Amino acid sequence: MDIRAILLDFDGTALQRDQVYISYRNKQALIAAMEKGIEIIPSTGRVEDMFPPQIEALKNIRYWVTSNGARVVDRHTGEIIYQSLFTPEESAEVCRLYEGQKIYSEIAANGLIYMEKEICQNLGAYPVPPHHVWFLEAGRQVELEKPSDFFLKERVGIEKVNIYGVPEEKQKPLLDALEATGYVDITPGAGKDIQFFPKRLDRAKALETLFERLGITYENVMALGDSVLDASSIERAGIGVAMGNAPDSVKKVADFVTAPYDQDGVAIAIEKYLL
């Protein structure tokens, strides 16, 4: 099989338990694949500015699929190959649903993370995800007095929003308000942690746009992932690989189930099929 690209998820797939570092064996397998002319394509829920430093340092990784497919970027030229965003008006409206209520949120836009300034000044009082601490300690977030005003005034569209630790009494009202907009898609299982993005987002179209640029199809791709969001790519890929820690619904559509993310599952799959 002519595999010319590896579609690679990060969290729960390529990264270690700390969700910051990649193991030596995984990294060496990726480098060996690139030396054979295989494109490594990160496909992740993260924005560009929150990519793991070890991945960011691999300059031969040219194309990034970020925010669950909301944005596809050529990092060598800065060209945005594809994007699907909330409009500035929609962006402002969804921010108004929770801003000023002391709810910790990370807003993805322009490949960056935007946050309420008031929250950033008192991070110790909020449920910061442990694997985001390095990012915040480096001060890489953009702090805004009032996000809704910024996105509307600057005509910026949001890629997605992650909200963490929503108090129980606020969960249902917030979820209901998001649903009521008619243009928000909420990741299944939302409760105290809520992730949402534009309903118009088409991850398959994002990938197909990039594959067309590269002159390949899904048949030329090895796809590795662990979540239901990865299942479609795993099922359609020439070689679909589910991590050992993936749910059964994802394993069911895979050609191969590798070891869990913290046992070099990525390297095992690459070594088995491509090296």
Structure write-up:
This protein is α/β, with parallel strands linked by helices and 275 residues long. It folds into two domains: 5-83 and 202-273, Rossmann fold (3-Layer(aba) Sandwich); 88-198, Hypothetical Protein, Haloacid Dehalogenase-like Hydrolase, Chain: A, domain 2, CATH 3.30.1240.10. Helix content is 33%, strand content 21%. The chain has twelve helices and 14 strands. It has helices at 10-14, 24-35, 53-56, 88-96, 117-120, 133-137, 147-153, 168-181, 203-214, 231-236, 248-251, 265-273; strands spanning 5-8, 39-42, 63-66, 71-74, 80-83, 104-109, 112-116, 142-144, 160-164, 184-186, 194-198, 221-225, 239-242, 256-257. The strands form three sheets. A six-stranded mixed sheet has the order 8-7-6-9-11-10. Helix 2 runs parallel beside helix 12 and helix 4 packs antiparallel against helix 7 (147-153). The model has no long low-confidence stretch (mean pLDDT 92).
Query: CATH homologous superfamily of the largest domain?
Result: HAD superfamily/HAD-like
Figure out the total of helices: 12
Tell me the major beta sheet. Answer: 6 strands, mixed
Order of helices and strands: EHHEHEEEHEEHHEHEHEEHEHEHEH
Any idea what the radius of gyration is?
A: 19 Å
